[in-house]
Specification:
mainly alpha; 0% strand; elongated
């Protein structure tokens, strides 16, 4: 059984929604340009935009209303900001291409990792604040996660990530 799980994790090349998983280091085309490098010096912290990272399984993406708090005035004539404003006025989320997605048979909780274990965002996502365009910073494959668990003396039993868990 363990060998089967290892084989599945190693060979899995599609996401839970059957979208190709972007490889480490390759930036997918996004619907709008967004630079963390431009926004981070303004004093924005990860949890200000990714509000659910400390208390939920997912980090979440910022609501368009958060972006429009500033962009109702700043760069409002920019074509990209006008597209963002359109999503906001239609109450539609920007269809961002996700960089990290685990298969359905894997459980991961940002709350447990960031909120409880106090693991910094950069441990998995890299120095996002230094990049204009994001790509997956490191593998989230089983070997990478198990190595991290070993380094932190965290539970590495199969059921830690491969059993039903509460949201």
């Amino acid at each position: 059984m363990i060998r089967l799980l290892v084989a599945l994790a190693i060979t899995m090349s599609v996401t839970a929604q059957n979208e190709p998983a972007p490889p480490v280091g390759e930036a997918p085309s996004q619907p709008l340009p967004f630079s963390h490098k431009t926004h981070a010096p303004l004093g924005l912290k990860c949890l200000e935009c990714h509000k659910t990272a400390a208390q939920s399984t997912g980090a979440g993406l910022p609501a368009e209303s958060i972006c429009m708090t500033c962009h109702v005035l700043i760069k409002r004539d920019s074509p990209s900001i006008q597209i963002l404003a359109g999503f906001h006025s239609r109450k539609e989320p920007v269809p961002w291409v996700r960089l990290y997605r685990l298969p359905d048979f894997v459980y991961f909780s940002h709350k447990r990792h960031h909120g409880k274990a106090q693991i910094a965002c950069a441990a998995c996502h890299g120095e996002v604040e230094r990049r204009d365009v994001l790509s997956k910073a490191k593998s989230i494959g089983m070997q990478s996660c198990m190595r991290c668990h070993d380094e932190r003396k965290a539970n590495n039993n199969c059921d830690a990530c491969h059993a039903p868990h509460p949201g």
